[in-house]
Amino acid sequence: MEAPRIYNAMYSKMNGTTALEKDPNFLMSNGTKFQNGGQCDVTSESPTTSSESTQDEGTKLKKRETWSRNIDFLLACIGFSVGLGNVWRFPYLCYKNGGGAFLIPYLICVALGGIPMFYLEVAVGQFMSEGGIGAWKICPLLQGIGFATTLIVFLLNIYYNVILTWAFYYLFASFTSVLPWSTCDNDWNTPNCRVSYGVNDTVNGTTMNSTLALVNATASNKSVDAVTEYWERKVLQISAGIEYPGIVKWDLALCLLLAWIVIYFCIWKGIKSSGKVMYFTATSPYILMTVLLIRGATLDGAIDGIKFYLIPTWERLGDVQVWVDAGTQIFFSYSISLGALTALGSYNKFHHNSWRDSIIFACANSGTSIFAGFVIFCVLGFMAKEQGVEVKDVAESGPGLAFIAYPKAVQQMPVAPLWSILFFFMVILLGLDSQFVGVEGFATAITDLFPKVLRRGYNREIFVACTCMVSFLIGLSMVTEGGMYVFLLFDFYSGSRIILLVAFFECIAVGYCYGVDRFYDNIEMMYGFRISPVIKWCWLIVTPLFNLVIFFMSAYTYSELTYNRVYSYPKWAIAIGWIMACSSIVMVPIIFFWRLFRSSGTLMERIRMTIKPKLRRHQLREQDTDPDELISETDEYYDHEEAVVSAPISEIKVPLNSSSHSIPLGVSTSSVARSGSSNSVMYESAC
Description:
By secondary structure, the protein is mainly alpha-helical. The chain is 56% helix and 4% strand.
């Protein structure tokens, strides 16, 4: 068995012959007492989710947690990144951009951008053992990356929970014998409401038919389906534009409050609580999707939907928009540049093999997207057959798919309420784990920024509660009569293509400022082996170039936000959107110039000084010169001894300045035998 490495800062400046003599009964971070006389006494459980306080509860800092089991990290990544975008965006993009042909640019983007960026963020978090802001002390000059990602995920959390609000609303409405959107005899219906209609009655040729469509339908006596009227007139009660916010819809506001309460109690105790919830929320959607796929495959017309989904249109590969859609879908689907992946990686034990998990994650994420396409297009094919139209006339993405197209298909199935409950329960589960990992990522970044305040007593729980409350209050603007317009404004700009620029700076920070070879050495320190050099060249050249190309291509194809391709946002609303988009990326130059301003010397001296990483002793390599200049101030919260136990306790490696000394249990210090080449102290184990 490989010997564990248990680092103790208390002994980091002692030589090998005095480490145990200084305190023959010293207590390590896992609660194991080492004695010279041959005894070993385990006084507490080995570290799992080590949330024990360093001293008295409520007055002293609590130790930073780690995942209880290795699989917890993988489930958290899958739960966070595999979400609604896989179900309602990828299938739509696939049909829109050439069917099966879209898989070619999609998989190319996975290889060039998705896997390298995902692994980069996870590895930086694991190595630094800090969240989205603190982890970028690996390059203090570009630490604005951390502030940018934290702001992005905060804005994302605000509007993402509104989707859960709608899902809760539909779930509660499904507990009835007759689905409320399947009839036209309700008080919200208009005289033009129709339960079913053919191609000649389709409003604007799509299923996302909005208020303006309803107005036009009234004027021209065209029919409007009951599902659209339920969504527009009952659930949203949507106004004519963002200029008319209207009143808060208190039924939606209560659902929004419920969503935030659920989120809070999933994460209020940190990963100790959220890690357990993941076992259910990350795996159950796959069971539900399989059930829905089996049901969908038995429907008449399902094969037409599958053909429409998969048959390639090769000429679409020459369209720039296809490659932009593929690149941006990878970033949204893999949750890159949000800081949450860095936070998840930071809870790994120091020697955890996150490289293996990254490959598994990539297969699971992309596989889920393709699998979800079959689930959705089986049902869309059935719906098109029932209505006598083509699949393209019912295919939609985003809220239009989840809250109009799919409910419309469900109402035509036998035992419709049951399938409606299953579908919206799946939507809630997909959204829940994405949401509470996003909130956890934000909370981790701020907690690691102020550990001496937020790691005392119940301060962290109070902070998370305040975060949820502020997010709820801002989210109320999205459950008004004009709330849909606010929601789309957040969705289009706050989590926009700016994340591609953030990812570019991440590659620069690690590949050039910190040094890609140096980071490869650090990875070898964590894993005990060197990973493929392909990733190194991706970080240096391929991935940053990929990020810039996709960013400029998306800028070239940019068009201002509209609602249903009919309503155009006013200029002041577009300006607010751009302020949200730029508020994140502007943090990179702000921190850049602030660091330079706070330094002294010439410009080059200031740059050299501010790109020096702030590390802890166990993160140093043997060849690092001037280690004292690289060591940041440590405190009890960040003692590095806690994060690096990887095997049964039969040998201890205590870093003594730049060398490593192995001190097993139950021997006298007089039996030390020093090896000349490694300058390490070896003993035979007695435990």
